Amino acid sequence: QIPVIALVGYTNAGKSTLLNSLAGSDVLAEDKLFATLDPTTRRVTLPSGREVLMTDTVGFIHKLPTMLVAAFRATLEEILEAHLVLHVLDITHPKAAEQAATVRAVLTELGAEGYPVLTVLNKIDRLGVDIQPAELASEFGLQTDAVPVSALTGAGLDLLLERIETTLAHVERLTEIRVLVPFQETSLVALFHERGQVEEVAYRHDGVLLRGMLPAYLLPRFAPFLQAGMTRTRVPRHSP
Protein backbone atom coordinates (compact mmCIF):
# COMPACT_ATOMS: atom_id res chain seq x y z
CA GLN A 1 0.00 0.00 0.00
CA ILE A 2 1.24 3.47 -0.92
CA PRO A 3 1.31 5.74 2.16
CA VAL A 4 -0.89 8.83 2.10
CA ILE A 5 0.42 12.14 3.45
CA ALA A 6 -1.97 15.05 4.04
CA LEU A 7 -0.82 18.68 3.94
CA VAL A 8 -2.68 21.03 6.28
CA GLY A 9 -2.23 24.68 7.12
CA TYR A 10 -3.57 28.17 6.62
CA THR A 11 -4.32 29.72 3.25
CA ASN A 12 -1.10 31.18 1.78
CA ALA A 13 1.14 29.07 4.05
CA GLY A 14 2.66 27.60 0.89
CA LYS A 15 1.10 24.14 0.83
CA SER A 16 0.48 24.08 -2.91
CA THR A 17 3.94 25.49 -3.65
CA LEU A 18 5.47 22.84 -1.41
CA LEU A 19 3.58 20.09 -3.21
CA ASN A 20 4.67 21.52 -6.56
CA SER A 21 8.30 21.49 -5.46
CA LEU A 22 8.21 17.98 -4.03
CA ALA A 23 6.25 16.38 -6.86
CA GLY A 24 7.23 18.53 -9.83
CA SER A 25 3.52 19.12 -10.49
CA ASP A 26 1.57 22.21 -11.45
CA VAL A 27 -0.97 22.41 -8.65
CA LEU A 28 -2.62 25.84 -8.54
CA ALA A 29 -0.59 28.05 -6.21
CA GLU A 30 -2.41 31.37 -6.03
CA ASP A 31 -2.32 34.03 -3.34
CA LYS A 32 -6.06 34.16 -2.74
CA LEU A 33 -8.74 32.76 -0.48
CA PHE A 34 -9.47 29.07 -0.97
CA ALA A 35 -7.27 28.70 -4.04
CA THR A 36 -7.32 24.99 -3.21
CA LEU A 37 -11.02 24.16 -3.13
CA ASP A 38 -10.69 20.45 -3.76
CA PRO A 39 -8.01 18.12 -2.44
CA THR A 40 -5.25 17.55 -4.96
CA THR A 41 -3.07 14.46 -4.76
CA ARG A 42 0.33 13.86 -6.35
CA ARG A 43 2.96 11.13 -6.20
CA VAL A 44 6.18 12.07 -4.44
CA THR A 45 9.35 9.97 -4.47
CA LEU A 46 11.31 9.59 -1.23
CA PRO A 47 15.13 9.26 -1.06
CA SER A 48 14.91 5.45 -1.00
CA GLY A 49 12.87 5.47 -4.20
CA ARG A 50 9.66 4.64 -2.39
CA GLU A 51 6.59 6.55 -3.56
CA VAL A 52 3.97 8.24 -1.40
CA LEU A 53 0.73 10.02 -2.22
CA MET A 54 0.71 13.60 -0.99
CA THR A 55 -2.62 15.43 -0.70
CA ASP A 56 -3.06 19.21 -0.52
CA THR A 57 -6.16 20.09 1.53
CA VAL A 58 -8.20 23.28 1.62
CA GLY A 59 -6.47 26.05 3.54
CA PHE A 60 -7.56 27.35 6.92
CA ILE A 61 -8.73 30.95 7.16
CA HIS A 62 -9.24 33.26 10.14
CA LYS A 63 -12.88 33.46 11.32
CA LEU A 64 -14.28 31.02 8.76
CA PRO A 65 -17.84 32.05 7.71
CA THR A 66 -20.46 29.89 9.44
CA MET A 67 -21.98 28.62 6.18
CA LEU A 68 -18.61 27.18 5.15
CA VAL A 69 -17.67 25.43 8.39
CA ALA A 70 -19.37 22.10 7.59
CA ALA A 71 -17.90 21.88 4.08
CA PHE A 72 -14.47 22.87 5.38
CA ARG A 73 -14.44 20.18 8.04
CA ALA A 74 -15.81 17.55 5.64
CA THR A 75 -12.91 18.28 3.30
CA LEU A 76 -10.40 17.87 6.12
CA GLU A 77 -11.84 14.55 7.29
CA GLU A 78 -9.66 12.73 4.77
CA ILE A 79 -6.83 13.47 7.19
CA LEU A 80 -8.18 10.59 9.27
CA GLU A 81 -7.14 8.19 6.50
CA ALA A 82 -3.61 9.58 6.18
CA HIS A 83 -0.47 7.85 7.40
CA LEU A 84 1.16 11.19 8.20
CA VAL A 85 0.10 14.84 8.42
CA LEU A 86 2.40 17.64 7.24
CA HIS A 87 1.49 20.86 9.05
CA VAL A 88 2.78 23.67 6.83
CA LEU A 89 3.30 26.94 8.70
CA ASP A 90 4.26 30.34 7.28
CA ILE A 91 6.83 31.37 9.89
CA THR A 92 6.89 34.94 8.56
CA HIS A 93 3.21 35.52 9.34
CA PRO A 94 2.67 37.87 12.32
CA LYS A 95 0.10 35.46 13.77
CA ALA A 96 2.02 32.26 13.06
CA ALA A 97 1.80 31.03 16.66
CA GLU A 98 -1.95 31.61 16.76
CA GLN A 99 -2.40 29.85 13.42
CA ALA A 100 -0.36 26.87 14.60
CA ALA A 101 -2.53 26.57 17.71
CA THR A 102 -5.71 26.75 15.63
CA VAL A 103 -4.57 23.97 13.31
CA ARG A 104 -3.76 21.76 16.30
CA ALA A 105 -7.18 22.50 17.82
CA VAL A 106 -9.04 21.63 14.61
CA LEU A 107 -7.10 18.38 14.23
CA THR A 108 -8.17 17.48 17.75
CA GLU A 109 -11.82 18.32 16.96
CA LEU A 110 -11.64 16.08 13.88
CA GLY A 111 -10.51 13.19 16.06
CA ALA A 112 -6.93 13.33 14.81
CA GLU A 113 -5.36 14.02 18.20
CA GLY A 114 -2.34 11.78 18.60
CA TYR A 115 -1.91 11.35 14.85
CA PRO A 116 1.65 11.59 13.53
CA VAL A 117 2.27 15.22 12.54
CA LEU A 118 5.46 16.61 11.03
CA THR A 119 5.59 20.41 11.16
CA VAL A 120 7.11 22.27 8.20
CA LEU A 121 8.35 25.82 8.90
CA ASN A 122 7.95 27.37 5.46
CA LYS A 123 9.28 30.59 3.85
CA ILE A 124 12.67 30.62 5.59
CA ASP A 125 14.01 32.43 2.50
CA ARG A 126 12.30 35.57 3.83
CA LEU A 127 14.07 35.51 7.18
CA GLY A 128 17.56 36.42 5.99
CA VAL A 129 19.22 34.93 9.08
CA ASP A 130 20.77 31.64 10.13
CA ILE A 131 17.98 29.18 10.81
CA GLN A 132 17.88 27.45 14.20
CA PRO A 133 15.03 24.90 13.86
CA ALA A 134 14.67 24.18 17.58
CA GLU A 135 14.47 27.88 18.47
CA LEU A 136 11.93 28.59 15.73
CA ALA A 137 9.79 25.64 16.78
CA SER A 138 9.92 26.66 20.43
CA GLU A 139 8.87 30.20 19.51
CA PHE A 140 5.68 28.89 17.92
CA GLY A 141 4.93 26.27 20.56
CA LEU A 142 5.77 23.39 18.22
CA GLN A 143 7.75 20.20 18.59
CA THR A 144 11.47 20.90 18.30
CA ASP A 145 11.90 18.50 15.38
CA ALA A 146 10.02 20.80 12.99
CA VAL A 147 11.67 21.10 9.57
CA PRO A 148 12.55 24.59 8.20
CA VAL A 149 12.17 24.86 4.42
CA SER A 150 11.58 27.23 1.56
CA ALA A 151 9.07 25.71 -0.83
CA LEU A 152 9.93 28.53 -3.24
CA THR A 153 13.73 28.09 -3.40
CA GLY A 154 13.88 24.41 -2.47
CA ALA A 155 15.99 24.96 0.63
CA GLY A 156 15.49 22.20 3.19
CA LEU A 157 13.39 19.95 0.95
CA ASP A 158 15.96 17.13 0.91
CA LEU A 159 15.91 17.08 4.70
CA LEU A 160 12.11 17.15 4.69
CA LEU A 161 11.94 14.09 2.43
CA GLU A 162 14.39 12.26 4.69
CA ARG A 163 12.30 13.14 7.74
CA ILE A 164 9.13 11.95 6.01
CA GLU A 165 10.78 8.63 5.27
CA THR A 166 12.05 8.06 8.81
CA THR A 167 8.71 9.13 10.30
CA LEU A 168 6.81 6.73 8.05
CA ALA A 169 9.11 3.91 9.11
CA HIS A 170 8.07 4.62 12.69
CA VAL A 171 4.32 5.07 12.19
CA GLU A 172 4.03 1.95 10.03
CA ARG A 173 5.32 -0.31 12.78
CA LEU A 174 2.70 -2.94 13.47
CA THR A 175 1.33 -3.09 17.00
CA GLU A 176 -0.77 -5.90 18.42
CA ILE A 177 -4.05 -4.65 19.87
CA ARG A 178 -7.40 -6.03 20.98
CA VAL A 179 -10.43 -3.78 20.53
CA LEU A 180 -14.18 -3.99 20.98
CA VAL A 181 -15.70 -1.88 18.20
CA PRO A 182 -19.36 -0.81 18.67
CA PHE A 183 -21.73 -1.78 15.86
CA GLN A 184 -22.28 1.90 15.02
CA GLU A 185 -18.55 2.14 14.21
CA THR A 186 -18.46 -0.65 11.62
CA SER A 187 -16.33 1.50 9.31
CA LEU A 188 -13.49 0.92 11.78
CA VAL A 189 -13.91 -2.83 11.42
CA ALA A 190 -13.48 -2.46 7.66
CA LEU A 191 -10.47 -0.20 8.22
CA PHE A 192 -8.82 -2.79 10.48
CA HIS A 193 -9.27 -5.46 7.80
CA GLU A 194 -7.99 -3.11 5.08
CA ARG A 195 -4.93 -1.63 6.80
CA GLY A 196 -4.10 -4.18 9.50
CA GLN A 197 -3.65 -7.90 9.96
CA VAL A 198 -6.72 -9.42 11.64
CA GLU A 199 -5.96 -12.54 13.66
CA GLU A 200 -9.24 -12.96 15.55
CA VAL A 201 -12.83 -11.77 15.10
CA ALA A 202 -15.72 -12.35 17.51
CA TYR A 203 -19.23 -10.90 17.25
CA ARG A 204 -20.73 -10.01 20.63
CA HIS A 205 -23.94 -8.38 21.74
CA ASP A 206 -22.12 -5.09 22.30
CA GLY A 207 -19.88 -4.97 19.25
CA VAL A 208 -17.16 -6.67 17.22
CA LEU A 209 -14.11 -7.93 19.07
CA LEU A 210 -10.96 -7.70 16.95
CA ARG A 211 -7.43 -8.82 17.69
CA GLY A 212 -4.54 -8.33 15.34
CA MET A 213 -1.67 -6.15 14.17
CA LEU A 214 -2.36 -2.52 13.32
CA PRO A 215 -0.05 0.25 12.00
CA ALA A 216 0.89 2.73 14.71
CA TYR A 217 -0.56 5.71 12.82
CA LEU A 218 -4.06 4.22 13.16
CA LEU A 219 -3.89 3.56 16.90
CA PRO A 220 -5.57 6.89 17.83
CA ARG A 221 -8.66 5.86 15.83
CA PHE A 222 -9.03 2.68 17.86
CA ALA A 223 -7.84 3.96 21.24
CA PRO A 224 -11.38 4.53 22.67
CA PHE A 225 -12.16 0.85 22.12
CA LEU A 226 -8.91 -0.68 23.33
CA GLN A 227 -9.37 -3.84 25.40
CA ALA A 228 -5.76 -4.82 26.01
CA GLY A 229 -2.36 -3.16 25.93
CA MET A 230 0.14 -3.40 23.12
CA THR A 231 2.23 -6.55 23.37
CA ARG A 232 4.67 -6.46 20.50
CA THR A 233 5.59 -4.49 17.41
CA ARG A 234 6.77 -5.52 14.00
CA VAL A 235 8.37 -3.42 11.27
CA PRO A 236 6.91 -4.00 7.78
CA ARG A 237 9.19 -4.35 4.79
CA HIS A 238 8.76 -2.22 1.70
CA SER A 239 9.86 -2.61 -1.86
CA PRO A 240 11.79 0.37 -3.30
TrEMBL record:
* Domain Hflx-type G stretches: 3-172
The highest taxon in the source lineage is Bacteria
**What Gene Ontology cellular-component terms does the record carry?**
cytoplasm
Which one of the record's GO molecular function terms can you name? ribosome binding
Q: What is this protein called?
A: GTP-binding protein
Task: State the organism of origin.
Answer: Thermorudis peleae
